[in-house]
## 1
Amino acid sequence: MNWPAFTNPLMLAGLAAVGLPLLIHWLTRARPRRIAFPPFKFLVEACAGQQAVNRLRTIILLIVRCLLVLALVLLFARPFLKPIGAAANTQPARRVALVLDASLSMHAVQQGVPLFARAQAEAAEVLRSLPSGSEAAVIFEGAEPRSLLPALSENIPALHDLLVKSQPTFENGDPAAALTHAQKLLNGTGTIYVFSDFQKSNWEPVRELPGGIACRLRPVTTEAVDNAAITAARMVPATPVTGEPVEIICTVFNCSSRPREETVRLELGEFTRETRVTLPPFGTADAAFTVAFSHAGSFAGKVSLAPDNLREDNTRYLAVNVGKALDVVLVSDADEADWNSSAFYLSRALAPSPQAAPGINLVRRRGQDLDRGILETADVFCLAAPASLSGEALEIIARRVNEGARLISFLDGPTAPALMFPALNPPFQLQGTVTSANGEPVTMGTQKIFGELDAGDFSAARFRRHFQNRPPANRAGDTLLTYPDGSAALTISPAGRGSLVLVNLPLTPDGGDFIGSPIFPALLHELLRALRRDSAESTVTPGAPWVLDVPTAGEGALTVMDPDGKKVEAQILASGRTTRLALPPAKIPGIYSVKQADAVVARAVVNVDPHESDTRPLALENLKPGTNSAVTVQRSEEEFSPGETIRDLWPRLAAAAVILLGMEMLLLALWRSSRTAAGAKPTEVAP
Amino acid sequence: MATLQHPYLDLAAMEALRSVRLRPRGAAEGTFAGPHKSHFRGTAVEFADYREYSPGDDIRLVDWKVYARTDRHYLRLYDAERNLLTYLVVDKSGSMAFSGAVIRTPPKLEYAARLAAALGYLVLREGDELGLSLVDAQLNSHLPAAAAWSQMNRVLDSLGNASAEGRTDLGACLEQVFTQTKRRGVLTVMSDFLDVDARFWKSVDLFRRSRFDVMLFHIVHPEEIELPAVAAARFLESEGSGHFNAEPDAVRTIYRHRFDAFLSEVKANCQARGCDWYLAKTSDDPYGFLRNCFLARENGR
């Protein structure tokens, strides 16, 4: 037997309003004038039957209106039918935790239905089928597990209501965390239902299901959803300057068993480009665009594909700050006019003329002339064996490199050991000076920054002096050029957020014929390019807290706006040359703007996790059940519980309310029209 | 005549009735000589017949020329012209108090009284005799016919003192009026005729058989024809205790058909009996209405 229960029983207080139509009728009924009317008998004859009809109409109208109010009150109370009595008592109360995959991949549409909607419907069905007295929890699997109610609850209707109103997130899924959370809520007894697409990329780390608890796995799909996605988009260089060619490289992933062609569209600042890529089955391909910004500033944009089954991963957002020029400070004590000095060659190689060195703003300083302003603003430090450097200067340079600046240290002279910057974790230590009358050649190291054809150019160069060193095996990857004795001639290594280049090559003509050869300026510029190939893509994804560095400018408060234009609460962690803001987990991907006094001072992007684009499911057989736990894989859509289910009555009530409202309006219209017809003007009677 | 001052008699407005006269359709049988043709032989100028002299006849009527030719005495007879007897019967029952719910007019009794006063004035102006009966369930007040101007004052006083109350029994009242009449004349009944029944029509037949010229003035209020323009009302019986809630808009057409049928029935009964029937609305000018009635009557309509 079914009996109605109510989700919002307090709304039943509104049943008192059922009498409202009667009250309104009584209050607003026509208060008839008393008229002594001589032709009374004719009126009575005319009204014979009419009055009864009117009374009947009034009663019908009042009944319809009372029923309408009743239906509305019940509608707000959200009634549902649940088993009671014998039917309810036949099933024992249960404890269940429903884990719903709410990650980005659940946005995917398969056969016209989003996977999340499928999971949502089946989870709701489980809730409805629970016997009375059961306790349940619904946990959404995202970057962090999120429980709809903080603990197991007997308020199943409320849980059901929250469940059906929920939406999937843009976050990556962490099934292990969700299962742990569910296990904690159940506290050892109960059943975990998992509704997911069981993406291999998310579920592979889950080696074992929770122990001691029954798990019922319900895959909402058994095959990969055909999907194409942009899984990465990076710019080289990441911080370009005006006029400098910038390469934007997008990685496009084809998650389907057939090759496909996709059109990649770039919209960035003033640029709109399109290119086509051919993708192998379950493979990736790169699409590259080259642009050059004509002016400095902060630009944001996106690369996108045509919409498909999972359109949420078809767009990747980009933000770039274009600078005016690269500030290079050359620190050398040699005379720039002396053609026999390293400074002469370095300055000419770096900037033969303003036109020949686009994007480079070269500043030359002696070691003792360095001031704090120069050091704090330079993008690249070139230390050409200066005779002396103050400790403060060395400290600032090391800090700046850690913050993202680049350092090229030329080890040619007695001050070389001081230029090794131990704080920046150099790849080798100097052991001693090696001199050679005939000169030593260099060969290509492990890391390649030069093309194969360029390698031949070094074969002719001879180097008569260098510092002997022995890079450890684990730093072999940092070596670009090496001497025959195994010493590193040229290394490039990351240092903090910046880079460190150690040049163990003589920079004067007496040290070798290297600096006079045409490959010297080429090497220098190639190094600058290589140093700036820091194209690491922003890895901020929805669902994770993140920080944002904003250049400090002005006094106004910083306001962070999300892609929908809503304000995001940000907390200032530190401020200096840049202000570091701590931001709450982003809810949606897109371009986040930082405004100061209504001007955009910085932009940052949040992109979806590329793991979510790979929709290939895991073979559930590979999931090991936990200790003392039973795992059931429910592959069909059969109901989880064959017992009586909770049935929502509100759709029927809504339909009834609409019908009653329509009936009331129809009756009023009909009766008014008949009354108007009955009240037609009479014809005149002639005497 | 100069002393005639009464709310029911507007002499200035009655100028519209200066050229009309109430003429009987049959012969007049008034007591006195008057302007109307009668069945009596008298001394008027119009020759009627000869009759053989019998003792006691006025010898001034003997036609001496005929005596000279025939040696027999014949009297020369002339038509006598008599005045007219007009009996006014005014219904003063409770239903005559209706003056409208939305459209306000004088009460029907007042309208009937104005008509009666105007008619009485016209009658007395011609030297005819005028009688008045106020009726409801019974003959309430009766003024025997008289031709003096003082009768006008009595009539006005009687009309002024009348108040609309009580039930109606026109049939019985007309029978009583009939017993009070001595000679035939014109009977004018002013009523709303809401309770006319067979007895009433028998009473009318009684008058008609006695060669009375019968005129029925049917007094109605416009709202009695079209129902008051109110959304809903509790209608009370004028001459009873009945009441009834109704929405006039809902029943107007049916009511109107029913009331039309009633008017048509009264009119048809009048026409069948050779009576004149005039429908007077209380919203109309009584003198204009009366003038139209007389003109229609003179034109034979």
## 2
Amino acid sequence: MSAIAIASSTNTHTAKRHKPFPWVPVTLCTVALLYLALFLFIPLATVFFEAFKKGVGFYFNAITEADTLSAIRLTLIAAAISVPLNLIFGIAAAWAIAKFDFHGKSLLITLIDLPFSVSPVISGLIYVLVFGLQGWLGPWLDANNIKIIFAVPGIVLATIFVTFPFVARELIPLMQAQGRDEEEAAAVLGASGWQTLWYVTLPNVKWGLLYGVILCNARAMGEFGAVSVVSGHVRGLTNTLPLHVEILYNEYAFAAAFATASLLAGLAVVTLVVKVIIEHRFLKETK
Amino acid sequence: MTIQVVDVSKRFGTFDALNGVSLDIAPGELVALLGPSGSGKTTLLRVIAGLEQPDSGRVLFNGEDTTDTRVQEREVGFVFQHYALFRHMTIFENVAFGLRVRPRATRPGEKEIQRKVHELLGLVQLDWLHDRYPHQLSGGQRQRIALARALAIEPKVLLLDEPFGALDAKVRKELRRWLRRLHDEINLTSVFVTHDQEEALEVADRVVVVNHGKIEQVGTPDHVYDHPATPFVYQFLGNVNRFEGRIHRGVAHIGGGEVLAPDHADAHEARGTAYVRPHDIDIADAPDVSTVEATLDHAVKIGAMVRLELSRRDNGDFVEVELTRERYDSLQVSEGNVVYLRPRRARVFIDDKPADGAAVKLNSNSKLGSDAKTPHAA
């Protein structure tokens, strides 16, 4: 009898604990959704609404215009160079940090984070100060007829700088969590460093790696500040997509500006979808 | 394959993991490195494997210096405490890994790899799991796969780092008997690390007791248990009672009783400690020169044995005694009675330092019962 009483009292206890304040989750969800609507969905919808305001024909004319195509090409070039470079750098840095002990490790980690903590405009400015005509290497570069600032190489350099934490930052915690056991096991079994990297380390972090690459690519294509400083805004030559949007907007070509912007917004949506898919696969495999 | 470790030292920062360790291992032996955590036993194993480079000293395989041979070329089988199976590979691919990464010239053909891997999986009795992934296996199964993987490269020696440490008690017992049988079958020189004295005593041909980066004693399980060379080994292997006292001309005076200490015939009023196993103490009917008075606090009956928990009358120290059920019944004592303890066999060590505060503290701590097992280095 007493046992039953105890059981029923614990039951009511747990039942109470299930929903202590039913209005809390509802309120929190409402606030979150309102916030998202205000700052994310409405602006995103506006971009596409404004882009197609003058009709589909106008939209396609705007995005196939010569200067726009050139901006797309330059953006793709910058991403195509900076993403693979940061992929290699990110793997090398994460491997070194997670699997080896050496002096200056924490310094390296701090340096990798530097682009996150420095304003992109400053990082652009650094390149101007180093490679610009008045900069340290400027006179020598000018004498040898090498153009970096206000040219494509400068844009690529600025993009690499701004995006280089992405892959490394994604991999370091993952690799650290996995420890060194598997690498040591591979070494004892006779595997060389490359074999270990290729057959053991990388397969274990493939989803994290892909995730880092996706984020890195999104940032490489969307970067504005650093690229703006080193670009010089020469239409058809040194304009990337984000810079082109700004120029069109400043010229009151609103529909064309939004049409171009919709490409970047589309990229963002695709990135998010791919990110969700990767996260899903990643969770499934780690289970 | 013989293994010789010659005067090996290794420091991690300011921590002396190994301090001039030398050890000879005979071909086909199964040796246990036994010690508390932080004693350096795992470091020693990793130095033998080549996973750790010693600061000084040498490691020889069959008389050949392998100190500078890279881990990849040492041809050792290594089993990790947490298995370290490749999580994205099937069981088959895990075992095949060591064969697949060989240089083309020595790499066996696909058929040969298939044959060999299935043979090894058969040896560890898990061939039916070959297409599973590590996370689908139990801990005991994973460790057997790790062993099969280590054996796939036909290692010269087999090294196991706390191979059963992550398993539950029952599986651990099964697996260590299985390892012993497997070792007798393949007869490969093997070294395993453990902090579990029972495991070391049950499985190994020889036990190497390690403490503070040094070897305390090497010997067969019987020898190290019955003839511990140092107080540390005494306390680390099995339960032991400590009686502190005065040693004078071959006799230890402890708590009113006297114990012969023939090793210390020339001792003169020295401070020392007598170590007595619980099953080496009898209960006397009447007090005499060789007994110590104590009060019986508890008598716990465990199967055919009775474990008596007592406190000494002179200083309240905890004493544990093991008697057969028969002997206990014939004594007709009950809890609260005063009894007379007679150590049958004791080993007396003269204290290094004259007032060892830590030792006194430990003795009073041992009221917790099993604490006598705990080494003071732990």
